[in-house]
Amino acid sequence: MAHEHHGHDHPHPFQPDHPEPTSYYELLGMALNELLIEKGVYTAGDMRAMIEQLEAVSPETHGAKVVARAWVDPDFKAALLRDGAAAVSSLGLDPGYTELTALENTPRLHNVVVCTLCSCYPRSLLGRPPAWYKSASYRSRLVREPRKVLAEFGTTVPDDVEVRVHDSTAELRYVVVPMRPEGTEGWSEEDLATLVTRDSMIGVARAKATR
Amino acid sequence: MPHDTQGRIGPQDLGGLDGDSVDPSEHDLAQWERMVDAMTRLMYREKIFGDAAQLREGIEALGPDVYQRLSYFERWAASSARKCVMEGLVTQEELDERIAQIRERGRDGA
């Protein structure tokens, strides 16, 4: 796996025994972190704990549970669509610090999420956004030619299905509830959750097919 | 909000522009990027950043040239440092001095 490259030769993690050039802004981040710790704004332990906390959130362990519950429990689904944050909290999961709107895909409607201005993302459910979600090409093109962008992800949406693009903001995040795959009647919630991928909750893909 | 000649509010305003096809490959983060990510979270917790809009404000203040040139978490680092200087938590001199020290440490292999 490559590190994030954004059109310029980007330095690798700063390693004192490895004399690679290190960018000014990378050093700026490191300097700021050291100073904030020294000034007691937060501790080195807070930093370690926060890194671990951010690593611990994943689409599989968080978002997929919410979707699987919505698939098996109509009352929960209704509550989720009404007030996403409250419904997520009721499962004992962190809803994040913004409003959360769940968008239900149906045979007539396909929802897909973007943040055209930056990279707003339902991180408490899906963890860190993938690099492509933050990319200029996804942000610029999805609102203009969503079907074409979806096709690039291998998702062909028939012409008679409406595609709705939702632009996230600093105060409002979206998560897509994909359609429950056919042939999953009687499946347990745990098994259903394995079909719910990150991309299906962003809306660039469908939930995994059973076969 | 002022708009430029293309009706955009700034370099971050990408919605509707043309672009290349989306590269869907996965990317791993470098350790310093994980640190910057966590640092902004801690800044929210400590109410240094009121919300994500304030983080973005600092990114937009970079101007189009710097915005285009920097990587994602470099922008976050720049915005975080700007905010901490504005709030009087650190000074630019302290940051510059520390950056020089970190460079020195790297060079010494310490």
From TrEMBL, chain A:
<dbReference type="InterPro" id="IPR023900">
    <property type="entry name" value="CN_Hdrtase_asu/SCN_Hdrlase_gsu"/>
</dbReference>
<comment type="similarity">
    <text>Belongs to the nitrile hydratase subunit alpha family.</text>
</comment>
<keyword id="KW-0479">Metal-binding</keyword>
<feature type="domain" description="Nitrile hydratase alpha/Thiocyanate hydrolase gamma">
    <location>
        <begin position="25"/>
        <end position="205"/>
    </location>
</feature>
<dbReference type="GO" id="GO:0046914">
    <property type="term" value="F:transition metal ion binding"/>
</dbReference>
<keyword id="KW-0456">Lyase</keyword>
<dbReference type="InterPro" id="IPR018141">
    <property type="entry name" value="Nitrile_hydratase_asu"/>
</dbReference>
<dbReference type="GO" id="GO:0018822">
    <property type="term" value="F:nitrile hydratase activity"/>
</dbReference>
<feature type="binding site">
    <location>
        <position position="119"/>
    </location>
    <ligand>
        <name>Fe(3+)</name>
    </ligand>
</feature>
<feature type="region of interest" description="Disordered">
    <location>
        <begin position="1"/>
        <end position="20"/>
    </location>
</feature>
<dbReference type="InterPro" id="IPR036648">
    <property type="entry name" value="CN_Hdrase_a/SCN_Hdrase_g_sf"/>
</dbReference>
<protein>
    <recommendedName>
        <fullName>nitrile hydratase</fullName>
        <ecNumber>4.2.1.84</ecNumber>
    </recommendedName>
</protein>
<feature type="binding site">
    <location>
        <position position="115"/>
    </location>
    <ligand>
        <name>Fe(3+)</name>
    </ligand>
</feature>
<dbReference type="InterPro" id="IPR004232">
    <property type="entry name" value="CN_Hdrtase_a/SCN_Hdrlase_g"/>
</dbReference>
<feature type="binding site">
    <location>
        <position position="120"/>
    </location>
    <ligand>
        <name>Fe(3+)</name>
    </ligand>
</feature>
<dbReference type="Pfam" id="PF02979">
    <property type="entry name" value="NHase_alpha"/>
</dbReference>
<feature type="binding site">
    <location>
        <position position="118"/>
    </location>
    <ligand>
        <name>Fe(3+)</name>
    </ligand>
</feature>
<keyword id="KW-0408">Iron</keyword>
TrEMBL record, chain B:
<dbReference type="InterPro" id="IPR042262">
    <property type="entry name" value="CN_hydtase_beta_C"/>
</dbReference>
<feature type="region of interest" description="Disordered">
    <location>
        <begin position="1"/>
        <end position="25"/>
    </location>
</feature>
<protein>
    <submittedName>
        <fullName>Nitrile hydratase subunit beta</fullName>
    </submittedName>
</protein>
<feature type="domain" description="Nitrile hydratase beta subunit-like N-terminal">
    <location>
        <begin position="10"/>
        <end position="105"/>
    </location>
</feature>
<dbReference type="InterPro" id="IPR008990">
    <property type="entry name" value="Elect_transpt_acc-like_dom_sf"/>
</dbReference>
<dbReference type="InterPro" id="IPR049054">
    <property type="entry name" value="CN_hydtase_beta-like_N"/>
</dbReference>
<dbReference type="Pfam" id="PF21006">
    <property type="entry name" value="NHase_beta_N"/>
</dbReference>
